[in-house]
Design goal:
The chain is α+β, with helices and mostly antiparallel strands. 23% of the residues lie in helices and 24% in strands. It is built from five helices and ten strands, in the order H-E-H-H-E-E-E-E-E-E-E-E-E-H-H. It has a four-stranded mixed sheet, with no helix packed on it. A four-stranded antiparallel sheet has the order 5-4-7-9, with no helix packed on it. The chain has a two-stranded antiparallel ribbon with strand order 1-2. A hairpin with a 5-residue loop joins strand 4 and strand 5. The radius of gyration is 53 Å and the shape is rod-shaped.
Length: 279
Amino acid sequence: MKIRTTVFIILFVTVFFLIGMALPVSAAPQPQGFLTSTPGADGRIIYIVKEGDTCSQVALLHGITVPELRSFNSRLDENCTLNPGQQLVVGLSISNLPTEGPIATLPSPTVTLTPVSGTTEVCVLLFNDANGDALRQETEFGIDGGAVSLTNVNGSFSKTENTTSATDPDTAEPIRACFINVPQGDYNISMAIPDNYNPTMLVSYKLTVKAGDRASIDFGAQSKTVTITDPVETEEGGRSPLLGIFGALLLLAGAGLGYYAYRSSQPSSKLKGSPLDKR
């Protein structure tokens, strides 16, 4: 009896072992990804969003989580908003997954120092200084035909612009001759006055500008045909023409009284009409 039991146990173990050997070996874990017949060249699996899709639905459809979907698509907003026709990456093709191996070392970047620099703007106006006071009034506008030059003292920048009498239609202010993208530094400004004008102030100026500045310079000139006359004084501002007439009348009256006094002082005038008058 014992021998039969032992034989039966040996047979059972042998059969169980043979059955185990006949079963296929379990597949090893595969890297994360999805088998697909249409992966992109870079191995990405693309899903085209349809009307009514949500991030949860797309993630469930492709067996991934919403955080994984977000990690594939970093441009999704905080509400995970989807639009029809939008392309979403939902996985990577196994056939295109990179094989394990040493990580390539990128070459060190070449650092190029950028010099600190900046530009400015210089605007110049040649105005018609009608009263010759070297100060621009609101009614004194630009002059055509002038030329202004801006030159860096080291010679690295030099440019010339023409002056104009035009005005800005929005502000009614004269349009200036402007130099843009001017490097910061020290400059000489020179103004050439048209032939029919005389300068009322210096025609050269030294200027230092820094990056981001906007400099504005005025030069004045007066037409050679302008004749400066003394203003006529009125009752409000000084002498009145009536005072002059009144003064002339007083002079005439004074002259008359003087003549009368002179005639009265003669002896003949005192004897006239008396017995001693021999005439």
